[in-house]
Amino acid sequence: MQRWSMGVLLCFVVSGCALPPGGGSENASDLGAGPDQVASRDLDIAEAVDGLVVGHRLMAAGEYELALRAYYRASAANGVNVDILSAIGSANLRLGRVQQAEQVLRRALEQDETFVPAHNNLGVALGEQGEWGEAGLHFRNAFAFDGGRSSEIRDNLRLAIEKTAETGYDEREAHRLSLVRRGQGRFLLLDTPL
Question: Which long-range contacts (CB under 8 A, 24 or more apart) does 83-86 make?
């Protein structure tokens, strides 16, 4: 008899674990899902996960390779646009792939030549390669299209201006060189003694 009552009790315990109270009719918010979770908003996973948003969050977390993958998924799902190209360029820049970043950012500017992040990030890529003259042009464009609101762009522009102002000569060398005319329209740069 004791065996039989134990079996019935075990059946009740197992059936109680299988279904929640109310027969399993709760939605995800009743089970503790927060408002920012997909299940609580009754959305399909494909609709809820935007690769661009995921990529931006991964970039903020320092996960640049994963962010790049998310941006590629976003481009496959939504098509290639200036936002995605600029994001891919930024991820490549953070990964140290400067020339790849430059190529992608130039493609972004072909789509929208007024897109501020693409101008700024292309300026950064060019500055990394020592091309401060062209970098300064892109920083100027970014500053103009942004209306001067971003302090980061202003700082980048200031740095590019400083770098282009540096001639590579120190004061003593700059005074040692002189331009001398030789014949008709020919000029020769001579080193003059101090």
Answer: 83/52, 84/52, 85/111, 85/118, 86/115, 86/117, 86/118, 86/121
